[in-house]
Amino acid sequence: MTHDPSEINGACAWHGKAMEQDPRWRFALSRDDIAEIHGALDHVRQSGLAWDKMTKFDFPLPGLADKFAEMADELENGSGLANVSGLPVAEFGDGLRHVWYGIGLNLGQPVFQDFHAQLMRDIQDEAVDTDSLEGHKLTTRDGEKFQSSKARTLSNGILRFHTDRTDVVALLCVRQAKAGGVSRIASSVTVHNEMLRRDPELAALMYEPLHRARLGEERGGELLSYALPVFGQLKGRFTSHYSRTYVEAAQEMLDVPRMEDHHWRALDLLAELADELCFEMTMQPGDMQFINNHVIYHARTAYEDHLDANADQRRLLHRLWLAMPNSRALPADHEVLWRNVAAGAVRGGIGQT
After folding, report:
1. Could you tell me if residue 9 is inside a domain?
2. ∠ at Cα 104 (122, 245), nearest 5°?
3. Does 18 fall in a domain?
4. Are 180 and 303 in contact (CB under 8 A)?
5. Are 87 and 95 in contact (CB under 8 A)?
6. What pLDDT sits at residue 317?
């Protein structure tokens, strides 16, 4: 092997059972915080500005600055996770998107989540073939239709452990499912360290490039692939970008090198360890979950929705992708995904054409 990876220690290397009881990643809004958010919403409503046209200065939250700074530090230099409870979603009515986007702007810079320049994605069961609607046509080598990661997200099915293409993924729970839809969260740093202990050769493989498809996110994604390692280190800081769906999609493309058995065994071990080392969290309406994708894998259990209810009663999360001003520098070979690997850069998301 050409790589000699080392363990990463620190607050980002945690085990699920201990992390579940740790208060450091839990934050709550006070009455004063909520009053300030209402004030910012009143301010932007008076201007008539659409939520996706706002800047940080259009939604000022100076009283929350210290809390946001503590959260940003926990995300980048601590556990990689921050959960904020107590946002009274029903109070904001049709201004909720302004509120959520404004909170995101006060933490980082929202980046695009698809080739339509989408800045906020509604995570819900669309109950339709979103791949066909988007024109994605990748099939397996056996002629079966391949479901993209985006389509899987917009269903009520299980989501395997993965990362998103952004420094921090932020989720606001608007409504819960009838049952299921539980968040599963694992430290990718601990997964990496445990892989090193159990099978160092397989761990070293994850520092070598694997081809992934851009299916479901980028225009023409069923025709495009890129090579990127699953693990990376730079100056003692770790990063992992991982979604097995994109790897599997690339393997159905004719011009992509075939993976060998040991690559699949490495990905199998990674998934097994994430499952073993994770903890679960059920988000309540008004909960805000922030995850640093460089050091955390996240997943979701399948869920049952309120099928007989109106659409405005079914499970709904609002998602933002945030480039963070205090983000780490990344290895040069990660530029193919992030476009800019400098610390604090506005990076990630989906490039626009």
Report:
1. no
2. 45
3. no
4. yes
5. no
6. 93
